[in-house]
Amino acid sequence: MSAKYMVLVFCSLLLGGCWDRTEINDLAIVTAAAIDNEEDQKLRLSIQVFIPRELTSGQGGTGSGGGELTTVYSGTGVNISDAMSKVQAKLPRKIFWGHCKVYLFGEEAAKQGMAEHIDFLVRHPGPRNRAYLYVTRGKAKEGLALKTVLERSSAEALREFASLHIGMAVTLVDYRNMLKSESEAVAVPMIENGSKLQTPAQIQTKSILIGTAVFKKDKMIGHISPKVTRGLMWLRNEVTDAAITIQPPHVNGIVSVIPSRSKVTLDPLIKNGKWSISVKVDTEGDVVENGTLLNLMNPDLLAIVQKAVRDDIQARITFSLGTLQKELKVDVANFAGAFHRKYPKEWEQNKDQWEKIFPEVEVRSQINAKIRRPGLISAPAGVPQEDVIKE
Known about the structure:
Elements: H1 3-14, E1 27-37, E2 43-50, H2 52-55, E3 70-77, H3 80-88, E4 94-96, E5 102-106, H4 107-112, H5 115-123, E6 132-136, H6 140-144, H7 154-164, H8 172-179, E7 185-191, H9 200-205, E8 209-216, E9 219-224, H10 226-235, E10 244-246, E11 255-271, E12 274-290, H11 299-328, H12 335-342, H13 344-350, H14 354-357, E13 362-373
Parallel strand pairs: 1-4, 1-5, 5-6, 6-7, 12-13
Antiparallel strand pairs: 1-2, 2-3, 7-8, 8-9, 10-11, 11-12
Helix pairs in contact: 10-11, 12-13
């Protein structure tokens, strides 16, 4: 037997077949999942599944005959794994989690604790750790039913909202990291009840995002408004693309600025037994709308707008801290982590008292806001030159 022939025989032994393959036609592809608490210490798992026959119609957001692109299956059990087995019994295809983009938790489930549910999602090999988390007002299952106009499913719409960073954007990994942080506090975006977002009029007039659910350890203790959330995002250095609309003092009209770069640092200080922290914000932005008569090419007039931007950011942070420190008394900004890094010895001695210390921490803000580009035009558009304030 020639050496060449022996090599061919040996290589053929290394070729493996697809004996364990799973065809896509055998899978029920999950795009979103919802978890609700039920009576008798049980929970309900609801999954949103693509309808394959509708996907082949080529009709964009609707399937053949105007049918829905997704459907929802539900099952109850003592935990998610048990509930999933009940859902699987209703499906002729194997549940596949690989394309699940969103996990929804009902308000009651969030209040009673999410640790066990999160354990399944991060331990099971199927669910994606980069999928986004939301808490829904009311039942999470109703969140799967919210209607969308531009996206083909509610899961896709919620994923797009998270990627825009209009509010908090929290993945499974983010949740786990926040839960393991020194403050053990978690913030998860909260959405409106899906039953209130069904008709075109409701979709056009109501916002899906209604703020942020705040957790102490794994239990939801309250929620904050979108306004408070914006201040929290400044504290957490998570502001990426949001308009700051201000009215400069003693000036008619408003100016809108979009931050192009932001950096927030926390500088803690423990002195004479008093805990304080300095929040340093360094941001740059571009003017996208000038409704005043100010010519922003003049550095002195531009400085007026920059000060108004600084004051607005300061007000947002102060307003947010008032809610977090005095009302909820929970450190979702993770000041605790900053103190631990700078004062490890003092932190170890006082970490068990952090719930009492945090509300009393003095916060000082240092805001540095610069406008780098006043826009593509210098003077306000549509205003006679003689009316423009140039100095």
